[in-house]
Amino acid sequence: MRIFDLIQLSRQGPKYHTEMIIAALHFWNPSTCSLHLKCGMLTPTLLDVVGLTSLKPVGQTFDPDNHVSELSFDFTRPAYGNFILDHHVTSGAEVSDIEHIAFLTYWLSMYIFCSRSLQIPKKFTTLAIQLHEGRNICLGKLILGSLYENMNQAVASIKEFQSGGSLIIPGPIWLFQLWLLATFKTKLAISLPTKLSKAHEERSIEGIGLAMLQYGNRSSQDLFSIAYNVLLSCDVFAPSMAPFTTRTRGPAWFTKAFPATSIEDEAQINDIWEAYLTPTFLSSKVTSGSPYEIYGYQSNHVV
After folding, report:
1. Each residue of 219-261: pLDDT tens digit?
2. Please, which residues bridge with residue 282 across strands?
3. What mean pLDDT do residues 73-84 have?
């Protein structure tokens, strides 16, 4: 599994544009896991996930209940600081299995699934072990399913929000933010700082470049109003709102022509595009023994 680009993307954040996310949540419909706008329904798809992270949309569905491995991993001090101290081995240059699993557990908790806990949840250990072992897990589907789950929960939290309270939205909301920036880039009040222009041009995936974009010096109320009005006034779907259909940047398998132009590539490319376009269910389950949470993936219903 290729996760190098996603790790590089993690180094840019997460830096959240809270006002934009809150504004978008007002248009999110949990029954379809999509934004309901005047131009139609919009949602992050697996094509968007690939364009942002370069994670392949094909592979095994992660099942924490079906885990067989000779490796085991446990920790007694799960607080982030203690966890790093306990597993950061400096005595040798070679990375051990345990150290690598520890890194992946920390990375999944802190940067990918963005747990709200002040400690590293043990539930990510099984996934970390399977990634370490090189299992062909479709991480992109798991992340997207988790995003749908947390977006639906966030909408419910906003409805129940009371003045003076706090609103905490865990999960891979960074993916939703990057998708919003990519989809409405020409309309949102975002820009690239001059000092980051060179790094932006050298980006390997679009997600890294989008993570560099920043808002200007505006009040939170102005930023919320800008994002809200952009979504509210979106009555016509424009080609710029599907930025990854051109597939100009990313791994070679992502940028190849479809339909395939060579027999050698045909099977792989057909599998990838079938994953993009076929309605299915996405699981967000990462904990063994917990009930399955599944969400409809309906790319055929969005514009």
Report:
1. 888 989 999 999 999 999 999 999 999 998 899 999 999 999 9
2. 295
3. 86
User: What phi and psi, each to the nearest 5 degrees, are found at residue 123?
Assistant: -65, -20
Of 244, 281, 190, the closest CA to residue 49 belongs to 244
Pairing state between β 34-37 and 40-42 = antiparallel
Task: Give the residue-averaged pLDDT of 114-136.
Answer: 92
Q: The tokens of 108 are what?
A: 């999944």
Mean pLDDT of 102-125: 92
Per-residue pLDDT tens digits for 17-38: 899 999 999 999 999 999 999 9
* Other residues' Cβ atoms within 10 Å of the Cβ of residue 90: 5
User: Is residue 189 very low, low, confident or very high in pLDDT (cuts 50, 70, 90)?
Assistant: confident
**pTM exceeding the 0.85 threshold for the entire prediction:** yes
Which candidate, 47, 12, 30, places its Cα nearest to that of 183?
47
Question: Which pair of structure tokens corresponds to residue 63?
Answer: 């099942």
